[in-house]
Amino acid sequence: MDEHRIKSGEELEVKEKQETKTPSLYKVFLLNDDYTTMDFVVLILEKVFHKNPVEATQIMLHVHKSGKGLAGVYSREIAETKIVSVHDLSQQNCFPLKCSMEKE
Ligand code: TYC
């Protein structure tokens, strides 16, 4: 019933709101392990997550002491790409360094 009726302004407004929904953000965490060197983790934080040397060292030490630490916040696609980069670089260098993501 009423399928071909022209939509009211109110209905159009509701639709527009849904179409302009902002994308969800994801936190990317680095995880501690006993084998990856501290220098390699700092390098990853500088090269993949664009941290300066001081920030990178602080984050690495936080992960080392507490088990996990925030490397950055990104859209889903960028977060997934960062994780693949970290895992590829770690594997190429024979380190078990892992990271994970969580929806904000
Ligand atoms: N725990 C490691 C060591 O003692 C250092 C390390 C820090 C490893 C952070 C992973 O995400 C990490 N060599």
What is the secondary structure topology, with strand pairs?
Elements: H1 9-19, E1 25-31, H2 38-47, H3 53-66, E2 68-75, H4 76-92, E3 98-103
Antiparallel strand pairs: 1-2, 1-3
Helix pairs in contact: 2-3
Bound molecules: L-tyrosinamide.
In short, what is this structure?
The protein is about 50% helix and about 20% strand. By secondary structure, the chain is α+β, with helices and mostly antiparallel strands.
Verbal overview:
This protein has 104 residues and is α+β, with helices and mostly antiparallel strands. It has helices spanning 9-19, 38-47, 53-66, 76-92, and strands at 25-31, 68-75, 98-103. The protein has a domain at 36-103: 2-Layer Sandwich (Ribosomal Protein L30, Chain: A), CATH 3.30.1390. 50% of the residues lie in helices and 20% in strands. The two termini are 41 Å apart. 21% of the residues are buried. It binds L-tyrosinamide.
